[in-house]
Amino acid sequence: MSTTPAARGWEVSLSSATRPRAAVVDEAVRTVAGLALWVGLLLVAYWWVRDGGLGALGSAGAALTGLGQLSGLVGSVLLLAQVLLMARIPALERAFGQDRLAGLHRTIGFTSFNLVLVHVLTVTWGYAAGSLLAVPTTLWELTWDYPGMLLAAAATLCLVLVVVTSVRAARRRLRYESWHLMHLYAYLGVGLALPHQLWTGGQFTASSARTVFWWGTWIVAAGAVLAWRVGLPVVVNLRHRLRVTSVVGEAPGVWSVYVTGRRLDLLRVEPGQFLTWRFLGAPGRSRAHPYSLSAAPDGRSLRITVADAGDGSRDVATLRPGTRAFVEGPYGRLSPRAREAGASGKVAFLGAGVGITPLRSLLEGMAYPPGAAVYVERYQHTPLFAAEVDQIAAERGARVLRLPGRRRADGSWLPHLSTPVDDVSALRGWVPDIAERDVYVCGPPAWTDSVRAAARAAGVPDRQLHIEKFEW
User: Fold this and answer.
1) CATH 1.10.3470 describes domain 21-232
2) Which residue from 87, 323, 327, 334 could staple onto 244, CB 3.0 to 4.6 Å apart?
């Protein structure tokens, strides 16, 4: 049986009994990143204590001011951590993946925003000598009389805009592109906060060590954004000059876009990953869309498959050959790099709807022994790429299981079955050795959560679960 293209250097030997080197490196990066954040938080807390922060708790006004200083320091560290998490730093992207980074970014973002509000309230209340009635007047005086405070107020408004549009209820009412554009105000908010910190925050510049720490973290954060969110995409697109070659309808409301360019072998994109796409000269060209590869990259062309999600994605149907594409990426850990496979090298792919697009490219492009892959697809009407999947499965000895129909109930990943069986028993019945496999899952959020729960109950360790949700 053919094993193309299994030997492209994406993985270490499947015969090794140890974890792949990439898995070890990525775990080390995650550990170091977490330690760096905690060190930063503990360092600013130590400096606050050293400045007498605990000793100021004797009076109401001093206690409020001290609490405000501490919340401002911790909030500032978390704001910078937010920037770094979404700066597209390659090492973090490879180690965490976009889904996990976005989740951490959201958690840290809400925490830092709450701390900023605590900082504003408690410092103002403290300067008002503990009198709640004097807080509005004191806030007005601080804003107008202290250097950098007007900019800090503008920074806070920017952060309010970002947080309000990040609440789940608000996100459901916004197009992805609109949300993404407004989310960029976070950079403006963080930048506008800098003068206030340097001009009025004595804790930021009270010693050489603190000056180096704060200026260093600011420079690193700004440099990361400029290098990887601005500079690298420009370099990538100048090098590869991507352009559309054709658009093919795959199913009602689903289209595949074929793209070619120069030296695509240097793009370093893996099966299962996604890029963000802008098609120049086409409707919505100013807005970026995240689309996964639906075929394994071969160094000559790329293919993405897009479903009409009502957010401008239907415009891909109108693309013409020769249309230039501007991409950022590749991103995501739904790729061979994430594998924890030991000696068996066995894998399972579980997808639903258009979520099977990255899994189809993994089925084709990932290295695994003949007979070691199981491909499970749930669909409502017609399975995507049925003929392609069947051909790949025949060539590589993969087993395909198709589950037609709507989900039988909320909380279940299965359609209605002729034999009553619970989610976990069904998974174990179809894939008895599921706990020994790397399990790749992609699909709608609720369905994906159900698969995750069933896989965990079936004994799959978290580090062998590789999941990407179609949400933002």
Assistant:
1) no
2) 323
Q: Between 181 and 371, where is the model more confident?
A: 371
Strand partners, 441: 350, 467
425-467: pLDDT as tens digits: 999 999 999 999 999 999 988 899 999 999 999 999 999 999 9
* CA terminus-to-terminus distance, the chain: 40
CATH fourth-level superfamily of 238-331: Translation factors (2.40.30.10)
Determine how β-strand 301-307 pairs with β-strand 254-260.
Answer: antiparallel
Residue 190 tokens, joined: 């963080």
Q: What is the pTM of this model?
A: 0.81
Mean pLDDT of 302-326: 86
Give CA–CA dist 139/129, Å, rounded: 12
**CATH code 3.40.50.80 for 336-469:** yes
SS3 for 329?
strand
Q: Which two three-digit tokens encode residue 135?
A: 């807080």
Taking CA atoms, 153 is separated from 186, 214, 262, in Å, by: 14, 20, 47
DSSP 206: S
